């Protein structure tokens, strides 16, 4: 059975569906037909190179994401230990940050209210 779609009433929206159709031995590009022109082989080689680079980039990003998760987990654990060991200092720091943010926001909105 062929992978080529015979129903042309709807466009191919699925990338996997398009890939399946193009990898079919009956597809002009796969069959080495002259319809692809002189650049067909170069286009296929370029597409394969792009796919390879994409796979490498995806693997690298997965690794970076995992390292970031581990680092943030260690940071969160460190903060939790510090807050547990020094609750009064932690409350004072949080209150100071809140007061500072409130002063900055109050100043910003009070300047906007003036003509």
Describe this structure in words.
With 115 residues, the chain is mainly alpha-helical. It is elongated. It has helices spanning 15-22, 40-85, 87-113. The model has no long low-confidence stretch (mean pLDDT 79). The protein contains 3 helices and no strands. The longest helix has 46 residues, at 40-85.
Average of the residue pLDDT scores: 79
Assign a percent range to the helix content.
over 70%
How far apart are the termini?
A: 76 Å
From the spread of the alpha carbons, the general shape counts as elongated
Structural class, from secondary structure content?
mainly alpha
Low-confidence stretches: none
Tally of DSSP helical segments: 3
Number of strands: 0
Order of helices and strands: HHH
Beta-strand share of residues: under 5%
**Rg computed from alpha carbons, rounded to a whole number of angstroms:** 29 Å
Provide a compact summary of the structure.
It contains three helices and no strands.
Which descriptors apply to this entry?
115 residues, single chain, mainly alpha, 3 helices, 70% helix
Show the helix and strand layout:
Layout: H1 15-22, H2 40-85, H3 87-113
Helix pairs in contact: 2-3
